[in-house]
Amino acid sequence: MQMVTLNPPLSLEVGAQHLTQLLRSQATGEGLPGEVRSAWLTAAQTADLQQLFTEQRYREDWKYTPVEFFRQAWALDTPRAPQRSADIAERFILPEEVRGSATLLPAVASLPQPTSPWEAFLGAARYAQHYSMKEGAFLLAPSHGEGVLPLLITISVAAGGSVELLLTPQSKGLLVLRVHLHLAPGAQVRLYLPTDTQVSGTYLYMLLSAHVEREARFESFDLTAYAAWKRTEQKVRLSGPGAEAHLYGAARVQPNTLWDQAIRIEHAAPHTHSNQLFKSLVHARARSTFQGRIYVHREAQKTNAYQSHKALLWDATAAAYSRPQLEIFADDVRCTHGVTTGFLQGDMLLYLQARGVPEAQAREMLAGAFLAEVLDRVPHTGIQEHLRHRLGLPE
Amino acid sequence: MKTETPMLQIQDLHVSVEGRPILKGLNLEVQAGQVHAIMGPNGAGKSTLAAVLAGKEGYEITAGDILLEGQSLLELSPEERSHAGIFLAFQYPVEIPGVSMVQFLRAALNAHRAAKGLDPLDTADLMALLKEKAQLLKLDPSFLTRSVNEGFSGGERKRAEIFQMAVLDPSLVVLDETDSGLDIDALKVVSDAVNALRTPERAFIVITHYYRILQHIRPDVVHILADGRIVRSGGPELAVALEEKGYEPLLATS
Ligand SMILES: Nc1ncnc2c1ncn2[C@@H]1O[C@H](COP(=O)(O)OP(=O)(O)OP(=O)(O)O)[C@@H](O)[C@H]1O
Ligand SMILES: [Mg+2]
Question: Please, what is the angle between helix B101-115 and helix A359-375, to 10°?
Fold first, then answer.
């Protein structure tokens, strides 16, 4: 691709077309089993990102998300192979990639059918990494120079295994990352997703999915100190009795940035449990969007599902959209959801100021207190401290 | 009246909220070392006066002035007023989940010190000070690590206000119905703490509906605030008369 400067910038449609071409050319389906591969390739060859603007079902999912990167698409070049880099976590080691026999891994076999053009492209992406693990703490830090990187990562966690994962993409341009985890019965996975990239013109779009078998437990912590544009989709399928998912998120949505969270939890078996707690602190001219869908199948009796999203607006130019969606087809279910959006409370600010705390510091204290509810739950002390520091909270 | 500048002078103060006049020409002078009680019917404007002193937003000063040590307060932010020595014990102290009392008072104290050109307190000195004052208010030290006012009973909140007053060592204290919600023992604890802090340099304005607290904290002057003005002032006997007869006869003769 030649870099060309266009004035005025491209329309969304032309940008989407450009990206579609780029992603199609990167869809080779390497590492997929033969019979599945051709299906995925067909999906990728017919997928078209312009559908995001034209088809109702996609428009719903992208309703509150400004897709500005499409306008920049002319500047997004062909990708380089992903490199890895280590940063915040000492205890985390690089996992060993599985080659050759990768197609036999449960995470490859349980890769869900694509429900959007993005998923089709990524499922068949040329850059695919497959991992199989049982115990330990592993670092995944995909990075590339500049451009657009479509990357598929699958992770199979063995029965009874216990794994901590740290996923910290380092990128410039558009990183579209598809991560699929398979948790065999009794497996426990704790996934950390810290984002702290100051680079403007960086777009991070993560599609995570987890297939959680019986008695397995999936936890994710999406911790955003800074991201110019970040959308995370998390799709969790609780497929066996006793399966659990706990999704936490804390974001400081810095001025002029986007933080976007789209969640779908599927309770497909009885006695499954899910919990979502997300908090976003939204600065001036920034936007926070949260869509949380809970889907309870008819047979998923005795299900518990909780969801809470709170947005705190820094001032009147900040915007937050929250949309809980519950679809419940079982009758013996305990399900609660709560959404609140509000400004920093004037009476709390006054109280702190009236005792002498300067306004700026008082605001920081309230902001810290707001996010602390989530950060306090981050079990890894190194990550917790790092994020506290990056989020500007007291130690 | 003494000849030196009063600590606090409120001159013909008119205040409106959302365009509605609440204070309508209020005058008040308080000398250092004095205790003034302000009593008055519900909705008279007592808490409004306290809020305006503390610098709360949303109150429009349409006329008049407030002078502290001869300097107008009106342009000062709430934190600057606090640094200047004003302390308001709120009628309804808010809960601040996630901010511990220690964290809060460290920030407050160090801001006061910075305003005086002093270095921040080190942790050991801070904790020693907080524990000493907690003891004065008979507060369990565990409350220092709890979130500010969160889950506190009404009485605990009021005690915590006086505790903060003791820590911050202000020169002008406004107690807005600090006595309501206190049981007899707690009232005694709070009053003793206030009395212990009565010095020739410090002044108190005690807003209350009850004579009870004034038996513990003996006021020098009692005012009746009604419909946005001080309508009567007198000695402690005025509070006794109020307790016996209610507001009506006193307001009728004013
Ligand atoms: N922020 C506000 N917005 C609207 N009205 C207000 C506000 N603050 C005070 N007021 C009104 O001003 C009047 C005086 O209220 P204020 O709280 O000062 O009374 P008070 O004398 O403290 O009463 P109480 O004895 O019940 O505490 C009331 O009519 C009240 O409704
Ligand atoms: Mg009042």
Answer: 160
Residue A389 CA neighbour count, 13 Å, CB half: 7
The strand ranges marked E within chain A are 83-84, 127-140, 142-143, 148-167, 173-183, 188-196, 202-212, 217-226, 229-238, 244-253, 258-267, 273-282, 287-296, 303-313, 319-328, 333-343
What range does the domain containing A155 cover? Answer: 7-193+200-208
Q: Which residues pair with B100 in a beta bridge?
A: B147
- In this predicted structure, the answer to whether residue B76 has a pLDDT above a threshold of 90 is yes
Distance B238 CA to ligand 2 centre (A): 20
Nearest Cα neighbor of A133 from A177, A184, A207 is A184
Find where tokens 């050759």 sit.
A100
Asked if the structure places residue A270 within a domain, the reply is no
Query: pLDDT-derived band of residue A81, with 50, 70 and 90 as boundaries?
Result: low
Residue A271 within any structural domain of the chain: no
**Which two tokens mark B205?**
């304005």
Residue to test with chain A: of B79, B95, B173, most A Cβ within 10 A? B79
**Quick check: A287 and A319 in contact, CB under 8 A?**
yes
Residue at A165 is within a domain: yes
Pocket of ligand 1 (CB under 6 A): B 17-18, 22, 40, 42-48, 58, 91
Q: Is residue A280 part of a domain?
A: no
Q: ipTM of this model?
A: 0.94
Ligand 1, pocket-test mutation among B15, B17, B53, most atoms within 8 A of CB: B17
Distance CA(A375)–CA(A391), nearest Å, equals 10
Higher pLDDT, A99 or A329: A329
pLDDT score recorded for residue A2 = 35
DSSP string, B143-185: GGTSEETTT--HHHHHHHHHHHHHHH--SEEEEESTTTT--HH
What spacing in Å lies between the alpha carbon of B91 and ligand 2's midpoint?
Answer: 6
Give A329-381 pLDDT, tens digit per residue: 999 999 999 999 998 888 999 999 999 999 999 999 999 999 999 999 999 98
**Alpha-helix runs per DSSP H in A47-178:** 51-54, 56-61, 106-109, 117-123
Q: Is B30 on the interface with A (CB under 8 A)?
A: no
* pLDDT recorded at residue A220: 98
Residue in B46, B92, B177, B178 to alter for ligand 1 test, most ligand atoms within 8 A of Cβ:
B46
Average pLDDT, chain A: 88
Query: Tokens 């934190």 — which residue?
Result: B79
Cα B90 to ligand 2 centroid, rounded to whole Å: 9
Looking at CA atoms only, how far is residue B102 from chain A in angstroms?
12
- For the record, the structure tokens of A346 come out as 């004037």
Q: Mean pLDDT over residues A111-115, rounded?
A: 88
Looking at residue A374, its pLDDT comes to 95
When mean pLDDT is compared over A44-58, A113-127, A192-206, A258-272, the highest value belongs to A258-272
Displacement of CA B16 from its chain's centroid (Å): 21
B184 touches chain A (CB under 8 A): no
**What is the tally of structural domains in chain A?**
1
* Percent of chain A scoring above 70 in pLDDT: 91
